Amino acid sequence: MAILHRATLVPTKMELLAAWLPDQDWSDGSAEAPTPVAAYRFDDPAGQVGIESHLVEVGGRTFHVPVTYRGAPLDGVQTGLVGTLEHSVLGTRWVYDAVVDPVYLAEVARVIREADTQVDLVVETPAGPERREQTMGVRGSGGTVPDHARVVVVRKPSTPASAGGPALTGTWPGRTVETVLVHLA
User: Fold this and answer.
1) Are 142 and 183 in contact (CB under 8 A)?
2) Which of 12, 104, 173, 174 is 20–30 Å from 78 (CA)?
3) Is residue 1 over pLDDT 80?
4) Is residue 152 within 8 Å of 184, Cβ to Cβ?
């Protein structure tokens, strides 16, 4: 279960992605601001790293952007920093492209291997916890996964679920056909 806080973020997640996305070789270089389509979350078993994947639309294209949120810089990683943001409850968060974060890589591989799904979302409010509705659905395919399997994030999801191997698939508003988001190679 992902515990979410009612918080102010500066910059917002979309502002942070808007500054970072145009420089990514897979993003087509559009400077248009991303529009959120849907998102899903996984839990860090240690409870230290936020794991959230965004589907955003930029220039008529849908992009899959998994990120991690950390309370300190990721040791030994020189690339993949999306930026930092100020969270009114948690303080400074270092936001990484999840493909460089070992916590994300291990968790998405586990979700795929165990045919698991995203976590429930619970928002902490003054009146107590409130469940938040999911904006999309994802699920792992299960199956045998070699120990040396490499996580491949599909940045431009458009392929119906037939990755030819273990995969994470999803559906979201406007896309009711299961579509590959991540696969193991």
Assistant:
1) no
2) 12
3) no
4) yes
Q: Are 181 and 169 in contact (CB under 8 A)?
A: yes
Question: Which of 97, 177, 150, 119 lies closest to 166, judged by CA?
Answer: 150
Angle of CA points 56, 59, 64, to nearest 5°: 25
Compute the distance between CA of residue 132 and CA of residue 68 in angstroms, rounded to an integer. 20
Specify the DSSP class assigned to residue 20.
Answer: H
Q: What would the pLDDT profile of 124-153 be if each residue is shown by its tens digit?
A: 777 878 888 899 999 999 977 777 789 999
Which secondary-structure segment (H or E) carries 121? strand 121-125
Whether residue 118 has pLDDT greater than 80: yes
- 100, 47, 95: which is closest to 68 by C-alpha? 95
